[in-house]
Design goal:
single chain; 153 residues; mainly beta; eight-stranded antiparallel beta barrel; 1 helix
């Protein structure tokens, strides 16, 4: 009788431990939803940003969700992302398309309020903890430095 109880517990433990996984593998601190709480332009807070964008990382896909002021409506903006081996550079790629949405449609470009490129964007990772992310980029054409401050949800 005791052997059956042990076998049953082992089977249950196997099923429970196999049920927990990350889609595409463990992506560490990046995984999950991040609230873009502030955008700075050349060190000055951008007052036009309303705090209504969320960056969601899973596997190699990033979904930047832009909501209305009441958070009733949403627009998804899909791309892919990659981090350098040393964790200091985040590359976002918004150059995708699908049968339903052609290249350049709102589903495959970042929210305009971010000022990020519709193609590739390279961001310097200034800080990444379990609670906060700070990334920045300098626009090659205008020379404007944008800093993005995100909090983990």
């Amino acid at each position: 009788m005791r052997i059956w109880i042990v076998a049953a517990l082992a089977a249950i433990m196997t099923v429970v431990s196999a049920g927990c996984s990350d889609n595409g593998g463990d992506i560490g601190l990046w995984g999950g939803t991040w609230h873009l709480v502030r955008i700075e332009r050349d060190g000055t807070v951008d007052d036009t940003y309303r705090g209504n964008v969320f960056w969601k990382f899973q596997a190699d896909v990033v979904d930047m969700v832009e909501t209305d002021d009441e958070m009733h409506e949403r627009q998804d903006h899909y791309g892919t992302w990659h981090v350098s081996a040393d964790g200091r550079v985040l590359t976002l790629d918004f150059s995708h398309s699908s049968d339903r949405f052609p290249t350049g449609s709102t589903e495959y470009v970042p929210p305009s309020v971010t000022g990020l490129n519709a193609g590739l964007t390279v961001l310097d990772v200034e800080r990444l903890t379990g609670r906060e992310m700070v990334v920045k980029r300098t626009d090659a054409e205008s020379g404007v430095e944008r800093t993005f401050v995100l909090k983990k949800q």
